[in-house]
């Protein structure tokens, strides 16, 4: 299915299923395409442009999506373990019910992006810019937010145990009461019951 790519080719309104994507493809564009059970693992997708595409049950383990502009994409039940989105723009997209543990989001600009029911454990959000971002029922254990403001970001439905963030960047984050107690450890506060 992917054997006969030609450099600088564009594909419209296609459906792909049950195949392995090339590891180092040419410059390619996909518009309004659906990918089901495609193995993108270890692929270099830096020169591949996806717009208005849907990914179902795809494997993106350790894929390189860096330096990319991503618009109007939907990922459903995908394995994105260790994916590299660094230095990309992620716009008008959603990731649902997927594994993004150990992913790299360094220098990413998010605009109207949703993570729904995802595991994002031990991932890095370094020097990230958020505009209209949602984390809904996500596992954010041990996630690192360095030089990334969480002001007005709702984390109250997520597991944020071991979150790595500076107090300045945590200011204005929306959390629930139990999370607030966990985050008090960042302040060095010791909580004891009164007699």
From TrEMBL:
<dbReference type="Pfam" id="PF13599">
    <property type="entry name" value="Pentapeptide_4"/>
</dbReference>
<protein>
    <submittedName>
        <fullName>Pentapeptide repeat-containing protein</fullName>
    </submittedName>
</protein>
<dbReference type="InterPro" id="IPR052949">
    <property type="entry name" value="PA_immunity-related"/>
</dbReference>
<dbReference type="InterPro" id="IPR001646">
    <property type="entry name" value="5peptide_repeat"/>
</dbReference>
